Amino acid sequence: MSKQYETVIGLEVHVELATKTKIFCACSTEFGGAPNTHTCPVCTGMPGSLPVLNKQVVEYALAVGLAANCRINQSCKFDRKNYFYPDNPQNYQISQLYLPICHDGWVEIDTPAGKKRIGIHEIHMEEDAGKLIHDEWEDCSLVDFNRSGVPLIEIVSEPDMRSGDEVIAYLEKLRLIIQYLGASDCKLQEGSMRADVNLSVREAGSAQLGTRTEMKNLNSFKAIARAIEGERKRQIELIEEGKPVVQETRRWDDNKESSYAMRSKEDARDYRYFPDPDLPPVVISDEWINTIKARQPELRTEKMVRYQEEYHLSEYDADIITASKHMADIFEAVTGICKKPKEAANWLMVEAMRLIKEHEMEPENMTFSPENLAKLINLVDNGTINRTVGKEVFERIFAENIDPEQYVEEKGLKVVNDEGELRRVIEGIVTANPQSVVDYRNGKEKAFGFLVGQTMRSMKGKADPGAVNRILKDLLG
């Protein structure tokens, strides 16, 4: 009988904070500037330059820590982590080892077996390094210090996860908490959320942890899931062949769906941490914590409950809409204008989600105004246009944020309510399709649908479907 194995996973999640300026200087944190244009003597490590802590970084770290049920170190400090690498201009990184700002927290995830708490060992503040660009054509490496000094928090979990699904659920939970707080946009593709996976394998039932490896270069949830599965299989194969698992850092290549060793895992001693002499301790008063607590917005879990109670949405609808903070903001704004929550939810869940999928984009990238969707809902609801036309108009709102009232007027899309004109058109269609009339009278319902379709096509979708059905039935006897 083959042995059963258990996978043990912990994560280190780096989140780039949404401050306008860097952690220790006034340089811009904006993504995508020309190389080395968002720099100064502090973030390029010039001798004699002094760091000054950005207060907003501390406030974001506190907000995330409180939302993740952490305890706060009310006197915390910064340490220097010494290592030598071309994208690290000072030859050390300012981080927090001995007294991180937050510790001993948890978040709750949903699993097939029910709710599960994932422990958070600590959250600490640190600065990001620069970025190396490897130029294969010139056979050299170039360094861009724009990202150097961008503020990060690192969220270190306990090794409480047992599968790729649990890891993704944990990351989704963290991402939504942080997005709802406004602390980061958490865009994995832009590097503002990055996860390193620590994974080991042990025989099921064993209390002893196996040798762990750390995997880097994971920039999408799909890549993380694939990397976990790949590394789990690799370690089990080594164990079954009687070979040792080496503690090392590995790099995941998502195109090849395999990982390769980067370096053997350094011990913390190799970094020669010591307190940063240029930065005083950060003292966090009870008043400051209470101010941050009072400012905490409604998070997703609370929002879901409120949508069901206040707007009478189903749990499923509330779940879909709150899965994106931007979608939830649009929903609330639309509902506030047109006072039709169920309609607002339907347009977003059906039409908006369809277009998001078609364009392979994120809900966060929707740019239309809530005012225009509210106007469209009213146009359909009061019968000015029918729902088929409404869907076409919504596509234009989604793509170009057009004013639907103006668009409907200009394109002549209003429902034709002139019964005389409608009757004349339907009479012409009945005359032109005698076989369908015979089929309908012989009990073939499809023939009726065909005649309705021909009428709508002739009216360019502007006829009132109710009136079309009524007149057609009347003419067919």
From TrEMBL:
Task: Supply the PROSITE patterns for this chain.
Answer: GATB
Q: What Pfam families has UniProt attached to this entry?
A: GatB_N (PF02934), GatB_Yqey (PF02637)
Kindly give the InterPro entries that the UniProt entry links to this protein.
Asn/Gln-tRNA_amidoTrfase_suB/E, Asn/Gln-tRNA_Trfase_suB/E_cat, Asn/Gln_amidotransferase, Asn/Gln_tRNA_amidoTrase-B-like, GatB, GatB_C_1, GatB_Yqey_C_2, Gln-tRNA_amidoTrfase_suB_CS
Broadest EC class assigned to this enzyme: ligase
Q: What is its EC number?
A: 6.3.5.-
The residue ranges of the Asn/Gln amidotransferase domain are 329-476
What are the UniProt keywords, alphabetically? ATP-binding, Ligase, Nucleotide-binding, Protein biosynthesis
In its UniProt record, a GO molecular function of this protein is: asparaginyl-tRNA synthase (glutamine-hydrolyzing) activity
Gene3D superfamilies membership: 1.10.10.410, GatB domain, N-terminal subdomain
Q: Name one GO biological process term.
A: glutaminyl-tRNAGln biosynthesis via transamidation
Catalytic activity of the protein:
L-glutamyl-tRNA(Gln) + L-glutamine + ATP + H2O = L-glutaminyl-tRNA(Gln) + L-glutamate + ADP + phosphate + H(+); L-aspartyl-tRNA(Asn) + L-glutamine + ATP + H2O = L-asparaginyl-tRNA(Asn) + L-glutamate + ADP + phosphate + 2 H(+)
Known role? Allows the formation of correctly charged Asn-tRNA(Asn) or Gln-tRNA(Gln) through the transamidation of misacylated Asp-tRNA(Asn) or Glu-tRNA(Gln) in organisms which lack either or both of asparaginyl-tRNA or glutaminyl-tRNA synthetases. The reaction takes place in the presence of glutamine and ATP through an activated phospho-Asp-tRNA(Asn) or phospho-Glu-tRNA(Gln).
Assembly = Heterotrimer of A, B and C subunits.
Report the PANTHER family cross-referenced here: GLUTAMYL-TRNA GLN AMIDOTRANSFERASE SUBUNIT B MITOCHONDRIAL AND PROKARYOTIC PET112-RELATED (PTHR11659), GLUTAMYL-TRNA(GLN) AMIDOTRANSFERASE SUBUNIT B, MITOCHONDRIAL (PTHR11659:SF0)
Q: Which family does it belong to?
A: Belongs to the GatB/GatE family. GatB subfamily.
Annotated protein name in UniProt: Aspartyl/glutamyl-tRNA(Asn/Gln) amidotransferase subunit B
The protein's organism comes out as Lacrimispora saccharolytica (strain ATCC 35040 / DSM 2544 / NRCC 2533 / WM1)
Lineage, top ranks: Bacteria, Bacillati, Bacillota, Clostridia, Lachnospirales
